[in-house]
Amino acid sequence: MNMKLLGSSLIIAGTALGAGMLAIPMVLAQFGLLWGTMLMLLIWVGTTYAALLLLEASIKAGGGLGMNSIARKTLGKGGQVVTNGLLYALLVCLLMAYIIGAGDLVKKLGSEVGLALTPSQAQIAFTVIAGLVVAAGTGVIDKLNRMLFAAMVLMLAMTLITLVPGISLDNLASVGSDNKIALVKTSSVLFTSFGFMVVIPSLVTYNHEATQKQLRNMVIVGSLIPLVSYLFWLYAAIGNLSPEQLIGFQDVSELITALSVNRSGMQLILSVFTGLALLTSFLGVAMALFDQNADTFRQNRAVTYVLTFILPMLGALLAANQFLSVLSYAGIILVFLAVFVPMAMTLKVRQSRQNQDQSVKGEVYQVRGGMMAMSLSFLFGCFLLMAELI
Predict the structure, then answer these.
(1) pTM
(2) What is the DSSP track for 162-173?
């Protein structure tokens, strides 16, 4: 895997690794490590398979296309309208949430250096500056994201090194609750934490010279990084705090405070990690929306910049204290867009006579598993919907 493909895998990982990672121990602690690990592995397998289906559809549709064009070529006009509606709703909700969260961090940072900013000013400043990076193109995002991701991994490594000596085997061995309904409900939080598929069409375009096997490996490596990070963080947090403590926390700041007791610098490390996680997620999601607008409206980069960021910024200004509520709405939309839509696209291209003709001329990428895997993916999507709605 060359540096460009590795950078693309890091964009996938950075998009998935959001600030929600810090809440994972609070969500899963009450069920013990065994059930928590098994559920996380299930969510990872399901989301990665669905992402590979989208990769297959993107390659067979011709590559170099945004989700808008892929949907038009595979699902027709009706499918294009539905896909665009879902994608815009998802990306705008996610960008709103990230702008709200990042604006809060910018405001706190400004106060520490003597710059008094209102929440609105902080959100506008973050959106304008980060938006310029996105408008500069995927290559710029790739290079910046490599540095940000390296810093984020360093922060996570420092956290784990600090926490490992305090791990209690009794905490790790705790069996936890056997309330499986409550366990299923946590699936929505975990699923959103693996929500990286929106960047795949942009990365296929960016890596137009890559082989199909390289693109597949790009997706798998990119999804493995957040999985390993989540599991390490889960084990370290549960090992240092009892399930009763983790369940009792109302928000992530209480978790950070508890882990920082008698550990100098921990609060600063986790705060920096949270900021980097928000920024890398913002860049990935904003890149997807920018490319989608460029594909749909065919305007110059200045107009596309305005189309991409004006609505999320206005939404963030109007919903300044609704970070978690906005993310919950995004979770339901993501189930349809990340599971059912790629499945429908792939079924269509596999049935098409055009792709049968292509397969005679040369090998065309196809996800393994056949209809059995497709059926399991459909059940996975139904499981996630049930988890969102119960």
Answers:
(1) 0.85
(2) HHGGG--HHHHT
